[in-house]
Amino acid sequence: MMDELSVYVGRQPIFDRKGNIYGYELLYRNSPNNRFPVGTDPEKATIELLVNTFLTIGIDRLVGKHKSFINFSKEAITQGFVEQLDPSYVIIELLEDTDINDELIMTLRKLRKKGFKITLDDFSNKNAHALLPQLFETVNIVKVDFLNTDANERRQIEQMTKRHRHLTLLAEKIETEEQFQEAKQHGYLLYQGYYFSKPQIVRGKEIPTNYMLHFYLLKEFNAEEPDIERISELFMHDISLSYKLLRYINSLTFNIPYEVTSIAHAIMLMGLEEAKRWLRILLLRELGAASGRGREKSLIDRSLVRAKLMELLAKHNGKRNADEYFLAGLFSLIHIIMNNEKEETLKQLSLSSTVLATLLDEETEMTPYLKLAVAIESFEFGEMETYLDKLGITEKQLMKYVQQAHHWSTAFD
Predict the structure, then answer these.
(1) Which of 60, 261, 376, 379 could form a disulfide with 252 if both were Cys (CB 3.0 to 4.6 A apart)?
(2) CB 324 within 8 A of CB 264
(3) How far, in Å, CA of 166 to CA of 162, rounded?
């Protein structure tokens, strides 16, 4: 039976004339089956691919330091979802049936000025008449489908593109040595197809989210003067959002060397406008989706209580970095939720060295707080007394903070 919490992205390598990997085309998949699901709405596919690529699996894991070719819908381009991505790693791919108009051309020009390369997918003489002449001055790469064009059609396309010397030809759906040699002979510089490699499936793990929180967040983001403290508070109630936020910051799209010390810090690194754009994508995706499943929901609830309890106890003891104690509790079960190796999962996040060391079972100043939270869950009274003494906290004070943590964690249920 397929795991409902798994997410999938297909990737197919694109090679240069020397046989080196130039980049990967990233492909929407919703199962281990290596094909685009029939009947899927293209806009939905774009949204799912963006979320799975940048927020769940991570662009760094999918392409490393190579470029990624991603099909963007017209709406995703014109509504600004592309702008904050790193053009060093993302190449915009226009679907062959995209409605080309002046608004799209203007947006593409702006993106090109920011350093993005733009690719025309499945170009043919059949759709050439529908493309505005200005588009050829805007795009960088033209993909020619060797499976669905004959030699005569390809010669015409090649002649047409020669009038625009800045264009690079990419031969796609190459399936034989003969096709590969033909492409090289006629000036194609990039190559893709089953002859080289079939798409591979990369699997990630989704974390159930409380999508009602997204509505509250959008309301806060859209306020005349957004309240960063309120926005951070809402993020902190959702481990899925918090994980995606840190996962994105840690990916190659930002390449930021900072250690994140709080959710507010992470939001400021991303930027309010960028966070709002991604939240809008997530909200579109989550509408109609199932809420948290039993096992994962239980682990998420425990994580939220641990996080708030550790923060409250740290504040009680005058710790100035109480936000980091919150992060330690929040991500203390993330590897179990995602059914993944602990070290591999945690190192994908931009956690501070102290938080990371604590979660990797090294002894730190945070360790007694985490162990106390764990002891409370399992009713290990001897352990509780040991850590209460170590932290200088009375049982009465602890019970007050436990109640506050539970109340906080269920505020949006």
Answers:
(1) 60
(2) no
(3) 9
Task: Report whether 349 contacts 246 (CB < 8 A).
Answer: yes
When mean pLDDT is compared across 60-64, 253-257, 340-344, the lowest value belongs to: 253-257
Least confident of 159-168, 241-250, 287-296, 377-386: 287-296
Distance, in Å, from the CA atom of 25 to the CA atom of 49, rounded to the nearest integer, reads: 12
Contact 146, 179 (CB under 8 A): yes
Residue 13 has pLDDT above 90, yes or no: yes
Q: Is the pLDDT of residue 82 over 50?
A: yes
In the chain, the N- to C-terminal Cα span, in Å, equals: 29
pLDDT digits (tens, 9 = 90+) for 89-142: 899 998 766 777 888 888 999 999 999 999 988 776 555 555 666 777 888 999
User: For residue 270, what are its two tokens?
Assistant: 């991303």
Domain architecture of the chain: domains with CATH: 6-204 (3.20.20.450), 206-286 (no CATH), 294-409 (no CATH)
Per DSSP, 209 falls in state: -
| C-alpha dist (Å) from residue 316 to 160, 164, 213, 230, 271 | 72, 68, 28, 22, 31
Distances (CA, A) of 53 to 13, 24, 200, 367: 16, 12, 14, 33
Tell me which DSSP letter residue 168 carries.
E
Tell me the C-alpha distance between 70 and 54, whole Å.
Answer: 12
Q: Which residue type occupies 347?
A: K
pLDDT tens per residue across span 352-362: 999 999 999 99
Q: Is 59 exposed, middle or buried (0-12, 13-18, 19+ CB in 10 A)?
A: buried
Return mean pLDDT, the chain.
85
Residues 6+ away with beta carbon under 8 Å from 199: 10, 11, 12, 25, 27, 34
Q: How many whole angstroms separate alpha carbon 260 and alpha carbon 197?
A: 38
